[in-house]
Design goal:
The protein is of the alpha/beta class. The protein has 5 helices and 12 strands.
């Protein structure tokens, strides 16, 4: 089976394991771990994402970043795999963009990715050595290939995988946060 079909099958299996009650419980713990993690505490520019309903809810971390004076940047997705990060001053100012996701408006200031100190990264699946499976658009793969950003994958318990299909452009993450804590790779 081709790698893209293998990845699609893994995505379907992971999403079939979704449990909303566990998502809420694990998301609270994940946020506590992120907020207590020293690299987050010292980061001046934090990159995040607006969580989809099947991803860990990191809104408390995003709000904390804003309230504590950090620069919060969120992605705007263009035609795959183009993604830019824009400064956000209030989560209420986000607009519906690509894929129906909330994202910064077009006129929000662009922040170069080399200024991001820590990037909270969404995922569909991840291995214990940091190999990330995304949604298939290549947005994060292109960004991660640059290798200049400390990345923290945000993981719900059912998103861990023993093994994932891998392609040459797949890049491992620096670390991951789950309900048990922070895992460095």
């Amino acid at each position: 089976m081709p790698v893209n079909e293998q990845k699609a099958a893994v995505r379907r299996a992971v999403r079939a394991s979704f449990d909303e009650a566990k998502r809420q419980q694990e998301s609270r713990l994940i946020c506590q771990h992120v907020l207590a993690w020293e690299p987050y505490q010292r980061a001046q520019v934090v990159g995040g994402y607006m969580p989809m309903k099947h991803e860990a809810d990191i809104l408390p971390v995003l709000q904390h970043a804003l309230e504590s004076g950090k620069t919060l940047v969120l992605p705007r997705c263009g035609q795959a795999p183009q993604m830019t990060f824009h400064q956000v001053k209030c989560l209420d100012e986000l607009v519906r963009g690509s894929f129906g996701l909330l994202e910064p408006s077009e006129d929000a200031p662009v922040v170069p990715t080399d200024r991001i100190d820590l990037l909270l990264t969404p995922l569909e699946g991840i291995t214990r050595d940091g190999l990330r499976l995304g949604k298939g658009g290549g947005y994060y793969d292109c960004l991660l290939a640059k290798g200049q950003i400390a990345t923290l994958g945000i993981v719900l318990s059912w998103q861990w995988a023993e093994k994932l299909p891998r392609e040459t452009w797949d890049q491992p993450l620096y670390a991951a946060a789950d309900q048990q804590g922070i895992h460095l790779f």
